[in-house]
Fold these 2 entries.
Entry 1:
Amino acid sequence: MKYVDEFRDGDTARALAGVIRNEVNPDRDYRLMEFCGGHTHAIFRFGIVDLMPDNIRFIHGPGCPVCVLPAGRIEAAIRLVENEGVILCTYADLMRVPAGKRDSLQKARARGADIRMIYSSSDALALARENPEKQVVFFAIGFETTTPPTAAAIKIAQAEGLKNFSVFCNHVETPPAMMTILAAGDAKIDGILGPSHVSTIIGSRAYADCCDKYHVPLVIAGFEPLDVIQSVLMLVRQINAGVATVENQYTRAVSATGNEKAKTLMSEVFEQRALFEWRGLGVLPESAVQIRSEFADFDAEKRFAMPEIETADIKGCICPAVLRGMNNPDECKLFGTACTPEDPKGACMVSSEGACAAYYSYGRYRATAAQP
Amino acid sequence: MCLAVPARVVELNGDSAIVDLDGIRKETSTILLDEVAVGDYVLIHVGYALERIDPIEAAKTLKLFDELRAQDASA
Amino acid sequence: MSRLDIKNGVIEMGHGSGGKTSATLIEELFVRHFDNALLDQGNDQAAFNVLAGRMVVSTDGHVITPLFFPGGDIGALSVHGTINDVAMSGATPLYLSASFILEEGFPLAGLERIVISMAKASKAAGVPVVTGDTKVVERGKGDGVFITTTGIGIVPEGINISGNQAMPGDILIVSGSIGDHGIAILSSRESLQFGTNIESDSAALHTLVANMVGVAPHIHCLRDPTRGGLATTLNELARQSKVGMRIQETAIPMKAEVKGACELLGLDPLYIANEGKLVCIVPAAHADELLSTMKKHPLGRDAAIIGTVCEDAQQMVVMETAFGGNRVVDWLAGEQLPRIC
């Protein structure tokens, strides 16, 4: 696969790791947060951890839209589909996430709720066209990569007069979440691996505040393993030099200003919410978007009564601390015993890119191998 | 957090395109991009093309890898 | 008896009631196409002599949707699947039974297409369908067609193949490219439509197994990696044999299109179903000869050594990635779903 295979070459990976090994200061740790869950997944899937020197520590960030979605929002979606008899369209990632009281979208579907897994917002539009007598609600989640596709769908729905289509909007924003983590300071982050595809949309300039205000270097890292490893090298070099700027490793897809057309589309359809609850990070100001009043017809929260639902995390679950980078998954009492991928208690275990899932699947070997 | 893969544009139809990923063909919306040409490589995410991949920058990154390999070999 | 209107007719409740309508369906569809002496006898059972030896029996239910997919259909799958389960013991498959649960309203033309496909698969394999059953459920209570096939076979003298026999030092061999079937199925599912040339690899493996056992009678384990893919099969065998496994990512055969589809949907090919492949665990001394024998068979052309069995109290399957890093290839937790993140 072009633009994939060349960035997965094993020999180059080992060589890059050799350069890193040569340049790290053996007397210190380098605590690097990979913000994006996709990077967490790549780090474990490709065994990048094994190639790095021991004093490079990856701290896993909250860049997993499934992980940070409060259980109450999933509960609200379940009630919507069960009470109003809508067709609920969702990305498959959400199906098994615990919603509180051990429920989930998958369990609701088993009870008879009309929940459909889709690949794209355009699939939700198609379902709305094919089922004119039913209400079709699209459960929209994601950071800025996934927000423009939702905006596009709403505009198409308006243009076509698709009166039975609406969106339950849960889109969140990356820079505010980063600022929150840096402000808290307890994760003691030395550098940040910035998200690949969010950055194609928002551009590298969007992170300037994070660096300037907290003096933490940030490298926008591409999605492939060689991108990640090269980005680690770039962070190590900045840290060694005492420098803190935004660097762009993913130049083949990310520019300073990002995708202007996508950004315009987003601001046309969405506006900032004053407040939004993030699982693990608490209620954050100006960190998420809602649908503008001009498109209120397509806002599920206006079309249907969708009360705010409080759900508590399961006792013992430390997903919040894991999401903030303060604890590793294996420090959770439930990890690997009460909480496993087959029977997850928190979102970090069920999401394919959640840190707990990555640790469980990929990390157990390293823990075992380390034992005498 | 966002799975996006590079695929080659093989056909254009207004606001949508057919892209090819090693023989897999998928219909994709190009509504987020201004100019897309057949032969371009684009990043696909949830059925939308997010951005064109710049072949010159890609080559630069690969060249950088080569230089780093040389650096490691001489160390 | 009035003839079946195969062109325009549909399954009715009467077809499952055991009366004249049932008999017509059985005569004109099943008996006609499966076409063998035992079935022609018209009994509720098939009686035959067997050679002395160890018998093997295996059964499988088939509920796949869509019913027709690139490279196959539920009918051929039900024949191949059970033949393979029997063959994985090293046994020579002899006979099949087939039980159908049909949904009221299912088109007879579709059913005939399935039965013709089954008959073709069965004849090509030399394993006849000698007895069967038909039931009908009300509209809405079935997915068109469910098929359960049961197969019996005889294990040749001196052959003892079982999942608990893998030993540290044994070699792991896979008979060909992985992920083809699962991707072919996904490509024909409504919500994920993508164009591909990938076809299901659905095939009967018993003649390949016969060749393998002929040249390497001391094969320890054989299994076909169906649901849950190669990863699940390796984990099952590791658990049964109480061993660990170490495999190399670069050694696992995979078609470029399967890789592409997995990248597109965020799926791990190790967990995707196969219907015409097998995994073999054999003592190291016999591995090379076995591999070259497999490669001479049409269904083993892309066979490859993918790893080794080792001591491991945790019974883990670990894969060396293309980087030389390691990752655990874990059990699947729930169904693998396409992801956006």
Entry 2:
Amino acid sequence: MNQTVKSKWATGPAISIARRYGLAFVSVAAALGLARVFMHFHLPQPFSAFALSAIALTFWYAGTAPGILAAVLSSIVRDYLFEPNTSTESRLLFDLVFLVFALLMTRVARARNQLELRVAERTAELTQLNDDLKREIAKHNRVEAELRLSEAYLAEAQRLSHTGSWAWSPPPGDIRYWSEECYRVQGFDPKGGQPRFEEFLQRVHPDDQARIAEVIERAVRKKEEFEFDYRIIHPGGEIRYARSIGHPILGPSGDLVEFVGTIIDVTDRRQAEKERERLREAQADLAHASRMTTMGELTASLAHEVNQPITAAVNGASTCIRWLTRDDPDLAEAREAAAGVIRNAKRAADIINRIRSISKKGESNRQLIDINEVIREIIALLGNEAHRYSISILTDLGANLPKVMADSVQVQQVIMNLIMNSFDAMKDVDRKRELAIRSRRTEDQYLTISVTDTGVGLPSEQTNRIFDAFFTTKPHGIGMGLRISRSIVESHGGRLWAADNSPHGASFSFTLPVPVEAPE
Amino acid sequence: MSCHKAGKLVAIVDDDDSVRGTLQELLRSAGLASRAFESAEGFLASGHQQETACLITDIRMPGMSGLELQARLNAERCRIPTIFITAHGDEEMRFQALRAGAVEFLPKPFDDEVLIESVRAALER
């Protein structure tokens, strides 16, 4: 019972000084109490045994100094409270026993303290080790998670770009790495495991196998990069187009270790390119047809208009010759006829210079049209053409523009002609190629549409001549586009003019009148 | 209404003033008198068809065309030797005109000798 009380008290490594010394007093007091109880029941004198126990306990739980205190206290208590009448010798003997016991206990306590210290040290070491290990594991987990994420991103990128990656050692080696996307592109089942090189080759179109084998063989021999296009026949019979690129990895002594590379599925890209090419051809055909139609109509009208005065001029010349070659030449009649020739020849020239009249006579289908819609249609049509020449098209279309009464096909021709001219002007310049189309309501009763480019600009000192028929700066042009465009615009009651665009390029603008009661 | 070829008149039908005028001058320089009309309708209304010995007409004109004029005259049993002059002549039109009794089909501009020879031939019929 004694023991349990003390041990409870003594738990915990850090007992305060007061507690430790207190233990000395309490344990000796307890010994004294017990001894008194024994005396009460007339039991044999037991204090010394209890005191020794108290000393031992104090040493064990409270340390050396409190233990010595307990020994001293025990000695005092015994000498003065229990046996005050004993002889000096016996008192000394008892004191000696306590002293020897205290010394022994000192040793025991010290040994125990050392042991505890060592255990604490080892425990600390182990705790440290454990913490390190935990940190290491956490770090490893983090790195692994990052790696997994990075791999997931990479796999996604491979899927999106239809690009697989591989590593391959030349014979006697084989395929060493084969990414997920490689399986997909090449038509292998990932469950079937990494394919062998022969299996890869079997999937290649028979017509491509020999060529590929040769390319690879040469790359291995020369330890150089390789690249080839080939067809893959998937198990379902579907043919895919692919391109593979390989890069040699050399060892420290320059020997070939392996090739690492990619397989790219280019089927969709090829398809898209073909589509684009077809679309471009269709657009070119359309633009050509449109130009030819305009030209054809114009030519027919022009021929008819010009033929009349030419006929009259020829008649006049014939008449003139007849008057002159008569037996009796009539100079007055001849002069009159020659004057007619001049008049009619001038009229023919006038007609050629006034092609505007032709477009007025031409069949025209005028309706209320949304000019912005016309512009957007043309831009959609010419988008690829612009892309082909790296030209960016900027649009700045006015909001809520009123509709105008116009022939949409003719207006399309005008805008298309201006844009095509701008494209031509920018094809060969090295600076930024930018085409800006703008539509605005100006002076209240007009819409102004302008096409501005960063091309070669207008021919100097010839700005006015560009609208003349048959004037051209292009090697293959016929010089009708701007002339016709101006005729069309003027036949609609508008104007078409050109200006330099600072610092580079040209700006063409035309107006179309807004109907008086235009529906907004 | 029948048509008696009584006169020696050369009639010119063309909507273009300058062609019409210079044609008349050309014939005059060859010693041939003529009357000019600016439309087929004008010629028919003039009542000169009976005395016309030779008709020179354009094909494409506003209103009645030269071919329609020819058909109308044929329907009236008034077969005037006709010379077509046109800026738009194609082969089909040419066959149609010749089948209907045209004596000549000349593209504009034409050779004055050929025209005058044809006119003279028509007058001598």
